[in-house]
Amino acid sequence: MYITSKQLALRWGISPSTIASDITRNPAKLPPFIRLGRAIRFPVSEVEAWERQQLTNIQISR
């Protein structure tokens, strides 16, 4: 399953223009994506894996 740049922006609560800008200027800031002509698609599994990698300072209380 794939999501669009707009859907990714909604998921993260940021502007779609931020995603568009990062695609061209700094794609390393984003999860892996597929370019189909002019369309950009993000595999949901890659987005979820990337989000897990971004988690920091998680403390587990016992």
**Poorly predicted tracts of residues:** none
Number of strands: 3
- Measured as a percent range, the helix fraction is 40-55%
| Largest sheet report | 3 strands, antiparallel
Structural class: alpha+beta
Broad shape: globular
How much of the sequence is in beta strands? 15-25%
Estimated radius of gyration: 13 Å
**Helical segment count:** 3
Strand line-up in the sheet with most strands: 1-3-2
**Distance from first to last alpha carbon:** 36 Å
Pfam family, one: HTH_17
Protein name: Helix-turn-helix domain-containing protein
Organism: Buttiauxella noackiae ATCC 51607
Describe this entry's structure for a reader:
47% of the residues lie in helices and 16% in strands. It has 62 residues and is of the alpha+beta class. The protein has one domain. The longest helix has 11 residues, at 44-54. The termini are far apart. The model has no long low-confidence stretch (mean pLDDT 92). InterPro entries: DNA-bd_dom_put_sf (IPR009061), HTH_17 (IPR041657). Residues 2-54 form the Helix-turn-helix domain. This is Helix-turn-helix domain-containing protein.
Q: Which helices and strands occur, and which strands form pairs?
A:
Layout: E1 2-3, H1 5-12, H2 16-25, E2 34-36, E3 39-43, H3 44-54
Antiparallel strand pairs: 1-3, 2-3
Helix pairs in contact: 1-2
Pfam families: HTH_17 (PF12728)
Domain Helix-turn-helix: 2-54
InterPro entries: DNA-bd_dom_put_sf (IPR009061), HTH_17 (IPR041657)
